[in-house]
Specification:
By secondary structure, the chain is of the alpha+beta class. It has helices spanning about 10-15, 20-35, and strands at about 5, 50-55, 60-65, 70-75.
Length: about 90
Amino acid sequence: MVLRFTLSPQVARHLSCCPVGVRRRLLDELAHALSLPLSPPTVSSSPEVGLLRLSSGFEVGYRLDRARGGLELLSLSGPGRFHLLPAPA
């Protein structure tokens, strides 16, 4: 299944604050995790909301809408100082 991938403003802001190496590792892990089934296909057309914990310690909240072919990253938190990134002003 091909999905349209979007980032919430919070996730985009957090990713822009990460050093390039951390961002690259995070996106590589995320791509690998998303290549696996997130959950078994269901007959429901309701969006699925879940949380992925990556091997680096980052947690990514997502909404998967199979009916519309969309995947939105809703939240991002990580190990160390990355979970303390400032909230928007």
